[in-house]
Amino acid sequence: MSRVIDVVKEAVLPILEEQNFELVDTEFLKEGKNWFLRLYIDKPGGIDIEDCAWVSEKVSDLLDEMDPDPIPQAYFLEVSSPGAERPLKTDQDLENAIGSYVNLSYYQAIEGEKFHEGTLLSVTDEVVSLEIRIKTRTKTIEIPREKIAKARLAIKF
């Protein structure tokens, strides 16, 4: 499956970059008896339905023309925005999220918790600083990067 993702990414990146779109994530997975190729795209100011339709049409045509076919089985192509709680996958994503409210999930509990939500204060190669709120007080914690399993933007309620 990762071969499919690698081939698709390499093929679609020029199309996306030409339009100033960012490829946030790519998934190729089986749900029930159906396969899905999902592309999550973004751009400054956000993605709308017309952007998704345009990318879907271009990518569909491109993949249909490729020889050999990178995805020999039947599949559904879905192109969408990553949403308000977009994943933070790259170093650049984390850097861009400084000052934003984020959710960090861990491989093992840190300070007794498997995840924290708070304001991302800083990012280095080794540590992420997060300002969290515990009841009525605010606390800054430093999380080693290697302990972070997933990071995403979060909506503050």
Mind describing the biggest β-sheet?
Answer: 5 strands, antiparallel
From the 3D structure, determine the CATH topology of the largest domain: GMP Synthetase, Chain A, domain 3
Segments where pLDDT lies below 50 for 5+ residues?
Answer: none
User: How far from one another are the termini?
Assistant: 37 Å
If classified by CATH, what would the architecture of the largest domain be? 2-Layer Sandwich
Helix-strand blueprint:
Layout lengths: L1 H17 L3 E10 L2 E9 L6 H17 L10 E5 L10 H6 L4 E10 L2 E11 L3 E8 L2 E8 L3 E6 L4
Parallel strand pairs: 2-3
Antiparallel strand pairs: 1-2, 4-5, 4-8, 5-6, 6-7
Give a verbal description of the structure.
This protein has 157 residues and is an alpha+beta fold. The protein has two domains: 2-80, 2-Layer Sandwich (GMP Synthetase, Chain A, domain 3); 91-153, SH3 type barrels (Roll). The protein is built from three helices and eight strands. The protein has helices spanning 2-18, 49-65, 91-96, and strands spanning 22-31, 34-42, 76-80, 101-110, 113-123, 127-134, 137-144, 148-153. The protein has a five-stranded antiparallel β-sheet, with no helix packed on it. A three-stranded mixed β-sheet has the order 1-2-3. Helix 1 crosses helix 2 (49-65). The longest helix has 17 residues, at 2-18. The termini are far apart. The model has no long low-confidence stretch (mean pLDDT 94).
